[in-house]
Amino acid sequence: MFDTKIAILVRNDLPMWQRLNVTAFLATGIVAAAPQALGTPYVDAAGKSYTALCGQPILIFEADLQGLQAAHRIGLERELIVAPYVQAMFSTGHDDANRQVFLAEDPASMNLVGLALRGGKKAVDKATKGLALHP
Q1: CB neighbour list of residue 114: distance below 8 Å, 6 or more residues apart
Q2: Is 130 left (phi over 0), alpha (psi -120 to 50) or beta?
Q3: Among residues 83, 86, 82, which one has the least CA distance to residue 123?
Q4: How far is CA 25 from CA 10, 78, 87, 134, in A?
Q5: Beta-carbon neighbour count of residue 107 at 10 Å?
Q6: What is the pLDDT of residues 92-122, one digit of tens each?
Q7: Which of 12, 63, 92, 133 is the most exposed place for a label (fewest CB within 10 A)?
Q8: Over the stretch 54-75, which tens digit does the pLDDT of each residue have?
């Protein structure tokens, strides 16, 4: 039904509140990079309008650090939309500080806690191969 796929990968050793927090942040990154992923606004039976939501499913996977790093590498190689979230971002209090700690990461071995990918189905499948859907 869709020619693209969205996957969010979350590290399997995080507390549940951090998994949910990372997932929410990463979903916004995908929509910011691909606004065409949004559907149209919702309207209830009383005529009240509500915001649009993503117009396609988002699959949530869990992975260890190595799985996230492999998916990151493949996502970049296959030119997917890639939204990363690193461990150091938990220690900051605002978006500018997040960018500073992200900049300090080694691109070849980021301490990833989450990663969102969007692109062609086959390319996203390749990046998430072997990973389990989040329970």
Answers
A1: 8, 9, 10, 11, 22, 23, 25, 26, 68, 84, 85
A2: left
A3: 82
A4: 11, 23, 13, 17
A5: 9
A6: 989 999 999 999 999 999 999 999 999 999 9
A7: 133
A8: 999 999 999 999 999 999 999 9
